[in-house]
Amino acid sequence: xxxxxxxxxxxxxxxxxxxxxxxxxxxxxxxxxxxxxxxxxxxxxxxxxxxxxxxxxxxxxxxxxxxxxxxxxxxxxxxxxxxxxxxxxxxxxxxxxxxxxxxxxxxxxxxxxxxxxxxxxxxxxxxxxxxxxxxxxxxxxxxxxxxxxxxxxxxxxxxxxxxxxxxxxxxxxxxxxxxxxxxxxxxxxxxxxxxxxxxxxxxxxxxxxxxxxxxxxxxxxxxxxxxxxxxxxxxxxxxxxxxx
Length: 244
Hints:
By secondary structure, the chain is mainly alpha-helical.
């Protein structure tokens, strides 16, 4: 499903390559008959805003949204397991699932990074896609509610994923809870997190240490992305649908 690749790119860090691919991405969305005309129009309008926007502003907004606090993390298992040892096993299981399907990863992202997960789903059949999206629907619903609360365009992508499986109504179940949450992206909240992570003695196994290290590396990479406009990204070929 090529539209999943487009949604993956829309949730990833903005680059010049993404802006240049906007016309092709818009055509893919226009042709996605599984979505309502209104949803297609809304997504295409967002893609045009990306194409016409100032890249540095887009990147700064992205980092402010996803690199400050964990409430809007695009790492799926962080919403379920945090950095516990259970997350480590879940990572191992997901990685094995990728490899069994012939989906090989590069070293840049963790297996549960949502855009990467969507790339994997784009290689599955419709039943597989629906099943996997159904398994993470509660995560997507809470994430969408948080993104909507922050008036972020990325809420359009996560809501679309729920719409593909007829689960968009689940978002409303989380809205009141999200409004009552204490924001974790304030200066005080961020200072508390960094103080906690400066010295951590809670790891009870090598697996725990590995997950904590990987999560820290992910956040460090995100901070580097804010300073590195040239970060590479794979884009879709409008004819073949291949990634490059």
